[in-house]
Write a structure and sequence with these properties.
20 strands; alpha+beta; 446 residues; binds uridine 5'-triphosphate; 14 helices; 8-stranded mixed sheet; Spore Coat Polysaccharide Biosynthesis Protein SpsA, Chain A
């Protein structure tokens, strides 16, 4: 892009200030700024400005809703679904899709969150556990499950390097597909693009919902189509307990012909920070934790159980067809008022003491109301969910390692092996994906 084109484009869109320091920039900075301007999506910026009008007013109440029904899979019907899931896995029709573009700010770890060392004995990374589960699926079903990983500009290179250094954890390289989510600018309260340096626009990731557009843009959807993928297992980077594309989940989702199926689990307590799946205006929807009142969170049924008993840990199945159709649709934008260092009129960088700018994000669960068929399945969180979100306290490395130990100990005990209380355990998922596989190894005691 040439300077004159950039100037016209910015001025037409009321953003001429982006070039305010042009004459003070060196040639490299000028080139980089023009490159950044070329990536700006002014239609999206206009949408952001539109929703800024309502910003600052209290968050819209979630409105009237009912908790969504939750199924507990069991019995013969479940067994038939497991067989269906196994068949799809063996036929190479299932993919794994991981969103790992987040900033991981609560954990405060330098580097991609997926490279965080979580193995209680080996310090192996979150990515290691995910990749070895996929390797375990490949071995169990004599198949190749392609692994699509969304990164962001801030962690893409480091994520790829982590896979390289670890020889892709044993996965075929051609089955690992990295794609980068979008970035877009933040806006001041009056809708202006923020410069964080005189020659640089402040950009932030477009949220995990940016996955849909990024899947399309990167060719990942096309790659899935070429491979004949029909069902896609979606998960987040922070949960090493996740059962990736387990045949029961794949099979139940496929047997229902669902656009989307969500695993949900009993909340730890009324205030656990999880979104809840509801039915509102005749459609399924996710209500975020922040949209719920204390009264809604604490309300109980006649038997004393929580009215909103189940939360979503963001473990989903999507049909390929639904993902593809949703990738063509514009998603709603959510905004967050944040402190963003920005240059003032004199070109000095100022760190604000109060929030001064809006960041925008898309959330993947906003596709839920568009699903024609959707189901929520109850699962056992002790087996499958313990995320690393915070540096300390709940959902921290310490609690995740504790929960991994508990689960693996139970697996070993079920296999007839008793492990002394103070012994650390770590099981490679490529060796055993679950308790039954571990038992089938016929472990000897001692
Ligand atoms: P979280 O909402 O937990 O955010 O992301 P985070 O960035 O990991 O951590 P904090 O909030 O800064 O502490 C849930 C999942 O969505 C992915 C994350 O990588 C994680 O797997 N994500 C989030 C993206 O891929 N892109 C985003 O823009 C945001």
């Amino acid at each position: 892009m040439e300077f004159t084109d950039a100037k016209t484009l910015l001025e037409t869109n009321g953003q001429g200030h982006v070039l305010a320091f042009w004459d003070k920039l060196n040639a490299d900075e000028q080139t980089a700024l023009l490159e950044q301007i070329a990536t700006l999506d002014f239609a999206a910026i206009a949408r952001m400005q539109g929703i800024l009008k309502d910003a600052g007013t209290p968050a819209a109440a979630a409105g009237a809703f009912e908790p969504a029904p939750v199924e507990v899979p069991e019995g013969d019907a479940l067994q038939a679904c497991v067989a269906k899931g196994e068949e799809l896995l063996a036929a190479g029709k299932v993919a794994a899709l991981l969103v790992a573009g987040g900033q991981g700010s609560r954990l405060g770890y330098e580097g991609p969150k997926g490279a965080y060392p979580i193995g209680p004995i080996t310090d192996r990374s979150l990515f290691w556990f995910h990749a070895r589960k996929i390797l375990g699926l490949n071995r169990t079903y004599k198949t190749r499950v392609p692994f699509y990983i969304m990164t962001s500009d801030t962690n893409d290179a480091a994520t790829r390097a982590h896979f390289e250094e670890n020889d892709y954890f044993g996965l075929p390289r051609e089955d690992v597909f990295f794609f980068v989510q979008g970035m877009w600018p933040a806006l001041t309260t009056d809708g202006k693009i923020i410069l964080d340096k005189p020659g640089h626009i402040f950009m932030s990731p477009d949220g995990h919902g940016g996955m849909l557009a990024a899947l399309d843009r990167s060719g990942a959807l096309e790659d899935m189509a070429k491979r004949g993928i029909e069902q896609v297992f979606f998960f987040q980077v922070d949960n090493p307990m996740v059962a990736i594309a387990d045949p029961s989940f794949v099979g139940i989702h496929a047997a229902k012909g669902a656009d989307m199926t969500l695993k949900v689990c009993k909340k730890r307590d009324a205030h656990e920070g999880m979104g809840v799946v509801v039915i509102r205006d005749g459609h399924y929807a996710m209500v975020e934790y922040s949209e719920l009142s204390d009264e809604q969170m604490e309300r109980t049924n006649a038997d004393g159980s929580l009215w909103l008993a189940y939360g979503s840990p963001a473990i989903h199945m999507f049909s390929y067809a639904f993902l593809k159709s949703e990738a063509e649709r514009a998603m709603p934008l959510h905004l967050a008022f944040k402190k963003i260092a920005m240059v003032n009129e004199a070109g000095e960088i100022v760190k604000p003491e109060k929030p001064n700018g809006y960041k925008f994000e898309k959330f993947i669960f906003d596709v839920i109301p568009n699903a024609k068929t959707l189901a929520c399945l109850d699962f056992d969180r002790e087996q499958e969910f313990s995320p690393v979100k915070n540096a300390e306290g709940n959902d921290s490395p310490a609690t995740t390692k504790r929960d991994l130990q508990k689960k693996w100990r139970a697996w070993l005990e079920a296999a007839g092996v008793t492990v002394p209380a103070d012994t650390l355990i770590e099981i490679d998922p490529a060796y055993a994906l679950d308790a039954a596989q571990l038992k089938a190894k016929g472990l000897q005691i001692g």
